[in-house]
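Re: the pair you flagged

First of the two:
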Amino acid sequence: MMRVVTRARITQLEDDTRAAREKARETSGAANEAFGRHMRELYAVTGRAERAEAAASEVGEILAHAVEELSVAQQELLLKDIEIERLRQELAGESMEGRTLSVLLHYGRPHTIYGSRADAYADTATHGVPAEGWVPADERPVGEVTWRIDAFVYDAASHGFRRTPMPAPKPMGEAA
């Protein structure tokens, strides 16, 4: 079978081919532009994801540290609660009249409660507080003194403890 192709048909085919090539170029350009936008968006999203992951990791570390600190604080609180309960039970078993407690103050803030002044000195000495580090009660504000012991005596009239002045500690060789 033979086919006769006319000049008009060839011209038409050439025009169709040029139009198809132009359409292919336009489509290829649009595809390249879309691919470029997609890649820029992908890089931006990847960067944000990496920053979010780094921030999440940092927050995780901060949270872990906070949980650790909370655990330590809870343990300290539990130990102080146990000590308070022990002192309450000890106090409940005896007459309170004239009973004294010694409160160890560090820069004016309560640090520890002791049943006696001797217990306070003995315990704090094990933690490195020297005997000469104690300051007797004087006119200075309590917050200006590093370590200080204040005595509290039970007052039956008020059903509670009241602060009483403590004498200055005497050296071991002298009589009290």
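Second of the two:
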Amino acid sequence: MTDQPQAPAAPAWVERGAERRQPPTLLALRDLVAAGSRVNHVVSRRSGLTETELVTLEHLSREQIGPAEVARRLEVSTAAATGIVDRLVSRGHVERRPHELDRRRTELHITDSGRGEIIGHLMPMFAALDRHDASFTEEEKAVVERYLRGATAAFEQVSGPVPRSTD
């Protein structure tokens, strides 16, 4: 007898043909995930960026990271990350700057052009999400946040946590 942990029992709706028996919250979450996965594809096509270039701009819109961190987050080689960054720099969307504390390192900074590339395409979604969020009470928002944080943790059972900066 082994001491292997038992896999959790599969919900009944996992069976073939039973997907639509999921609770409405899970169906809505599936719809959200599907819609979200289409957003990057559509925005990258409209902007003329690759999806990896767009994801890189999204990371840089949240924080300054270096090329090695771009490679780690995108799960690509440092050479591939350098190519992605070079293309973004050539388009004027990203600038390379010396790291403030360690001048041997390089930080990547999103430019106004890069930020505008993201915001311009996503503003209708941002405005609609802001209006939708404003329609909830603080108590409802707390429940929605708890649900979404739990759903994120469930996703991370497969993908692992979102990489955080180590720069």
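The chain has six helices and two strands.

-B.
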